[in-house]
Fold this sequence. Notes:
elongated; 0% strand; 57 residues; mainly alpha
Amino acid sequence: MRVSFCNQVHFFASADAAKGWLTEHPDARVLPVADAYEVGRPLIEQILAGNTQTGCC
Length: 57
């Protein structure tokens, strides 16, 4: 689980700053921090509850 989420998260100062990276990763998406939090929260809750095989961070 960690590899499928934590290792794939990148932070950019703005959506504009991510344009070059997105060109190289056309299947990726850029989300505002609040939206990314909502996407990641259920995964992190599972990890913290010990409901995964690999743990996190």
